[in-house]
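Lipoprotein: structure, please.
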Amino acid sequence: MPRARRLLPVIPLILATACSTGSPAEFDRRMATWVGHPEAEVVNALGVPTRTYEGDGRRLLQYEFARPSSTPAIFPGIGLGYRSGGWGWHGGGWGVGTGLGLGFGGYGAAPAGCVLVFEVRDGRVTSFGRNGPGCVA
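Here you go.
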């Protein structure tokens, strides 16, 4: 079997490993470091929240993020070509050709979203929650 054919089944695994961005558990560990810190420090580090909510003696800071998709786009294609005319010494001719190929490029899926909410009581972060496939470190 030619070497190229033996490598074809391995290509998706290589791409998935190269494009991985982290894990939700790692994201949670990073966000947990903000628990106990003043609200002003979180806003200083992450920017102004997308939304805020106040009620029951607590304040919620909501951040919304969108990461590019980590799924590479693979485009299969079939081509057909025709040529007529001539160049050089031979004067004229024609030809037909076909081809099959894979195109790699860009990203295949929509951006992965992440909604992150910090709960603040008495000016300090008491907890956080996250939702969405983009919540990875």
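Notes: The chain has one domain: 17-131.
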